[in-house]
């Protein structure tokens, strides 16, 4: 089969976090009973007028900023006219001619290094209501009508499915950390369409659009399947038509929805019921003042603290733990040990008890006390598992918790050395085996040290002292 160059563009709709909808005071929420988060504006009653939600405009500014877009200072909304059951007004309010952000990019990592995925525009618009089809009957849920969306449209600059997936992962991460959207694809708060074409040169081929792909993983699968389908068609001498398709997870194929025989005429015109918006520096700065550190800024900061790449990615992937860790940086402590405790023992406890960090009694002072005692050997990693329930559920001091758990470790180096010397004198054969290169002998000797010490010494410290004594 001949070699073709794929060209891919991605369109993403994300539901924007806000208390109310874009043009009404109905609650912007998920999971409420059908048709309960609605009012006459959402239902498109004649004579009702939209009112701009200022917070959505601020969210649009934040999105434009984190995606490196130019912010449009003077903009308006437009009516996109079309007739469909999920659109009761027979038009959708969107931004056609003056999108809030243009000419942006998201930087991703590829096998060849860093690459910028260029963004054509981002614009704010309202969602339609949700339709459900039951046999010959179609039902409408207006809870989603008027929910604020930001649509993010890339330029046709993506060359393969790996780049598309990397872009969506990075986009999701940025929008989530900027608190613009929760980006839960399973709840429909992040929806993705992919435009795919192939050609033998740098010219664009005839594109097909794959609508409403259900997960980031499926985006990669859908793109690869569509590329293969188009390659197979051209190999047979067939003509690719501009059409809309969907990805069938069960079939693992893209399936035809409709052929685009003519261009849609949405008869856009300026929304007459909403005035032009003028965004000045004060309003823009106010919107941006609430932004916290973004993932790449966190990576740079954590790298400077000598956290491992694995620790960094795990922290960024768990936003509540990351928020707690960030505040810990106001204190002077061992941040590597702190990250280990949060990501391992504390995270495991939260998973087992099905609790969030804010539901516990964990505080920074006691956590720092634990880190200090771990470093001195006053408590061991084994002890952590014993004291953790009390640490998470009570406000007792660390000394009180240790007393309740009857933890009294040996920290005197002289006493530890006496124990090690006794073990070495009683196990001369194992000492000889170690010196002859048998690694198992060290494990055996270490076991004897812990047994004689009744587990009351820090294993790491004891091991270091044992090796030092053996190598003399």
Oligomer: single chain
The main β sheet shows up as: 9 strands, mixed
Shape: elongated
Low-confidence stretches: none
Distance between the termini: 68 Å
Report strand order across the widest sheet.
2-6-7-10-1-11-12-13-14
The share of residues in extended strands comes to 15-25%
Enumerate how many helices there are, as a single number: 15
What is the helix content?
25-40%
Secondary structural class? alpha+beta
Q: How many beta strands in the DSSP annotation?
A: 16
* Arithmetic mean of pLDDT: 92
List keywords for this structure.
single chain, 9-stranded mixed β-sheet, 15 helices
Q: What would you say this structure looks like, in words?
A:
It is built from 15 helices and 16 strands. A hairpin with an 8-residue loop joins strand 11 and strand 12. Helix content is 40%, strand content 21%. The strands form 4 sheets. Strands 2-6-7-10-1-11-12-13-14 form a 9-stranded mixed sheet. The chain has a 3-stranded antiparallel sheet with strand order 5-4-15, with no helix packed on it. By secondary structure, the protein is an alpha+beta fold. The longest helix has 20 residues.
